[in-house]
Design brief:
Elements: E1 12-14, H1 21-25, H2 28-33, E2 37-42, H3 50-65, E3 71-76, H4 82-92, E4 97-102, H5 104-112, E5 115-116, E6 119-120, E7 126-131, H6 137-141, H7 148-157, E8 160-169, E9 175-178, E10 181-185, H8 186-194, H9 203-213, E11 219-225, E12 230-242, E13 264-270, H10 274-286, E14 295-300, E15 302-307, E16 315-318, E17 321-325, E18 328-340
InterPro entries: ATP-NAD_kinase_N, Diacylglycerol/lipid_kinase, Diacylglycerol_kinase_cat_dom, Lipid_Phosphate_FormReg, NAD/diacylglycerol_kinase_sf, YegS/DAGK_C
Protein name: Sphingoid long-chain bases kinase 2
Domain DAGKc: 33-172
């Protein structure tokens, strides 16, 4: 996979059965025949470094399984947002697929790499996933485990489906994209804190929740659904907009969401106290909380959210990544990306 001039990215290409890669690609006939590139974007620091270790173990099997299908291009991220740049480079170079190797954070960056200046990049490149992160919540919607060998089999089969993508827009008009869940207020604040304790594994979500509850106040907000009239929503504890079902390390917060059906699921928790979470924790994780008092749900295509009394301190996140503070507009791009499943 040739890089663009002056590119700072480093892709390692493995052409199986071809010891002289350069020679093969300089002849017109060989260029016409050559297989397309699968770019594996690896976050070696994911899951406290476990992602990098598992990836090294996986590589021999990956080479064998995909030997007759593609060029395997490995690119290791070096820090925040690097996966976005890698993905955009791969798409410009005509990669057949970009596969996120890691958790929801790595996937989140790769998905944003499919867009530029708020718009989808025109390409036939597909998105893939080898879930090897702390939470891997997006994979749960499909019933996938953190089994990289199963993931390689899915990629080898090459089945594709159109994947919906959520779009977030802030007061400045800047857009950001997500595939899992966007959330507002308490849960987003908990996510912000939990990201500081990733070294504790899934325990980070409990620590984040405890810190978020400290000083928490339910707030009155206003929402506009699908371009309709503004509605008042009082004493909001958390507001979750799901393209997929899970967040926070396995909590099935938007249980009817489906990232292929052209809709988002809006779930609002109102007037919850800390003990309400404890009492209903098993229902939140099991996805049976929609009948609980103070919980409402509806299907939407877009939603605008703002504070009734602006304070600028209500957290917003998507795919477990801190995005900013209210206000925000969230909408759906149906079938925006081809997804290997």
């Amino acid at each position: 996979m040739a890089l663009l001039p002056n590119s700072s990215l480093s892709l390692r290409v493995e052409q199986f059965g071809s010891p002289d890669l350069t020679a093969e690609r300089t002849t017109p006939a060989a260029s016409h025949r050559r297989r397309r590139d699968f770019v594996f974007v690896v976050n070696p620091k994911g899951a406290n470094g476990q992602t990098g270790k598992e990836w090294k173990k996986l590589l021999p099997y990956l080479r064998t399984r995909l030997a007759d299908r593609c060029n395997v291009c490995e690119s290791v991220t070096s820090g925040p947002s690097h996966a976005i740049d890698i993905t955009r480079e791969a798409i410009r170079e005509g990669a057949e697929a970009v596969i996120a190797v890691g958790g929801d954070g790595t996937l989140h960056e790769v998905v944003n790499g499919f867009f530029w200046d708020g718009n989808p990049l025109v390409s036939t490149t597909a998105l893939g996933l080898i879930p090897l992160g702390t939470g891997s919540d997006f994979a749960r919607t499909f019933g996938w485990k953190n089994d990289p060998y199963d993931a390689v089999e899915r990629i080898a089969k090459g089945n594709k489906s159109k994947l919906d993508v959520g779009s977030m827009e802030g007061p400045t008009g800047d857009k950001h994209f997500f595939v899992n869940v966007a959330d507002i207020h308490l849960s987003a604040k908990a996510g912000y804190f939990s990201s500081q304790y990733k070294k504790f594994g899934n325990l980070c979500y409990i620590i984040g929740a405890l810190k978020a509850f400290n000083g928490h106040e339910n707030r009155d907000m206003a929402i506009k659904v699908d371009g309709g009239e503004w509605e008042s929503v009082t004493k909001v504890t958390a507001m979750c907009i799901g393209n997929a079902k899970y967040f926070g390390g396995g909590m099935k917060i938007t249980p009817t969401a489906d990232p292929t059906n052209g809709h988002l699921e809006l779930v609002i928790l109102q007037n919850f106290k800390w003990y309400d979470f404890l009492i209903n924790l098993h229902r939140l994780y099991g996805g049976t909380h929609l009948s609980v008092k103070g919980v409402s749900s509806r299907s939407v295509k877009s939603i605008e959210v703002k504070e009734k009394v602006p304070c600028g301190d209500i957290y917003v996140q998507s795919d477990g990544e801190h995005w900013g503070f209210l206000s925000t507009k969230i909408s759906l791009l149906p079938g925006a990306i081809d997804f290997l499943y």
